[in-house]
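User: CBS domain-containing protein. Structure?
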Amino acid sequence: MTSSVKAILDLKGRDVITAGANTTVAEAAAILSKKKIGAIVVVGMENRISGMFTERDLVHAIAKRGKEGLDQPLSQVMTSKVYRCHEETTVNELMELMTSRRFRHVPVESNGKLAGIISIGDVVKSRIAEVEREAEDIKAYIAG
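Assistant: Predicted structure:
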């Protein structure tokens, strides 16, 4: 049985680091560093997803504008076309999305609002646990 995004969130929690669109790149970089994370979900009114700011976006902002890029608001440098998943999304579907789109973080949306975030590490951990369960089940079946 393939795990779902809901199962991952139930284990890891639903806390998500967010920022507003007017947060500066420098402020967001400090948050990434302090929290030891690779992405921040940019939210608007009512906790609705308006973008993602990732380490890649940080690199692009500095490459394009130098140190002045640090003063830009996230709204100017964030990824605004955000692919989302839902709690019903399977781990296999999420792996396919993350691989084909080259994403390392995908926000989870429920009723149009942010409900969590899944990283590639979460997906790998879930998949390894699933494979280990399957192996144990096969061993138990063979052992009789």
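DSSP finds six helices and five strands in the chain. The longest helix spans residues 120-143.
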